[in-house]
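Severity: low
Component: inverse-folding endpoint
Summary: output formatting inconsistent between runs
Steps to reproduce: submit the following structure tokens with default settings.
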């Protein structure tokens, strides 16, 4: 909101002076008004609500309570200003996230490991607003020390469960885990039964994927009817190859798993988006791994990614539930910013308030 010169109706200033009239300057323009008029008379004649304007005479503010007392004098320089800006708000519409045959409102996918407890995990899923939850198909991930099953804390009627092949280093192990995950979820009637988040790791220190084994596993699982959401590096050539292999979604890492380093190579992510969406603009590209805080999610979404999958950034936060809320708002902010289109970056300043309608600078008189 800023001060702006109010729009006024011009009087006939170019006509010959009529007896009983005086000449004044009104919002920078020469005008003629009847002699003896007060400021209140002037505002009424201009059809302006005195409650919504401020009036300055000869660069001195005249309080609203004195409008009917001040009699306009010949040559007075009068400024009538108001405040402009703002507007009614409405939530922008957006298309759903489409992966294979399924549609989702939320573009945030949350994991289920490393939480302090199943109860906190459950609260984080709720706070994040996610609709997809990943689970690892391993005995030590399915049950806690009390023998409770993790699926007792993830409602299969509410969430689409995405089984992953975390910890697999060979094609055979990844395919085996995918089959086991499908068997479990078919018993629950969950729509994620035919899904798999494919990870075929190449190194236990970096947890980066083995590119050749990842392509091979993708081809095998697609042939078996799986919807494969595949974890990969930020290599655009490999990403394109995985899409060609039939992956339902390519999921480049922002940085190494659990590192919290955020998006290390945004340029490669941009190239991946360009390659995979060139002839298929709705193809889902989802950043997977490395997210440490909410701004990392926003950056991924501002780049044009379709979603973000994360786990450690929430699970290991000092306050996991609060961080889950932050991640929820972050993807929404980033998505809306991407759709809105950022302004171009410039070297020099550019005034945001309009120059038109500025009040007369102090110490300068209008030319006759």
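Observed output (run 2 of 3):
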């Amino acid at each position: 909101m800023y001060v702006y010169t109010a729009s006024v109706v011009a009087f006939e200033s170019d006509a010959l002076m009529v007896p009983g009239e005086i000449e004044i300057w009104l919002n920078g323009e020469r005008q003629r008004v009847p002699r003896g008029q007060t400021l209140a008379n002037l505002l009424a004649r201009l059809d302006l609500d005195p409650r919504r304007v401020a009036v300055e005479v000869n660069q001195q503010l005249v309080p609203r309570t004195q409008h009917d007392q001040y009699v306009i004098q010949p040559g007075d320089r009068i400024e009538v200003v108001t405040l402009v800006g703002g507007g009614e708000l409405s939530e922008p519409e957006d298309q759903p996230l489409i992966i294979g045959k399924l549609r989702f409102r939320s573009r945030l996918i949350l994991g289920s490991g490393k939480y302090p407890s199943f109860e906190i995990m459950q609260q984080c899923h709720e706070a994040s607003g996610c609709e997809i939850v990943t689970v690892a198909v391993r005995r030590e991930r399915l049950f806690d020390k009390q023998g409770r099953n993790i699926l007792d804390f993830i409602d299969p009627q509410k969430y689409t469960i995405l089984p992953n092949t975390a910890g697999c280093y060979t094609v055979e192990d990844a395919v085996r885990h995918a089959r086991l995950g499908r068997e479990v979820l078919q018993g629950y009637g969950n729509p994620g039964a035919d899904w798999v988040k494919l990870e075929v790791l190449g190194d236990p220190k970096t947890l980066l994927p083995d590119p050749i084994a990842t392509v091979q596993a993708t081809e095998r699982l697609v042939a078996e009817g799986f919807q494969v959401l595949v974890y990969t590096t930020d290599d655009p050539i490999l990403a394109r190859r995985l899409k060609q292999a039939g992956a339902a979604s390519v999921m480049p890492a922002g940085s190494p798993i659990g590192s919290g380093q955020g998006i290390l190579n945004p340029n490669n992510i941009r190239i991946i988006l360009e390659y995979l969406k060139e002839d298929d603009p709705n193809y889902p590209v989802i950043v997977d791994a490395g997210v440490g805080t909410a701004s990392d999610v926003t950056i991924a979404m501002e780049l044009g990614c379709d979603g973000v999958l994360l786990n450690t950034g929430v699970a290991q936060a000092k306050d996991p539930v609060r961080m889950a809320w932050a991640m929820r708002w972050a993807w929404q902010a980033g998505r809306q910013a991407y759709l809105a289109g950022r302004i171009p970056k410039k070297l020099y300043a550019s005034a945001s308030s309009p120059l038109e309608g500025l009040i007369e600078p102090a110490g300068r008189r209008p030319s006759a």
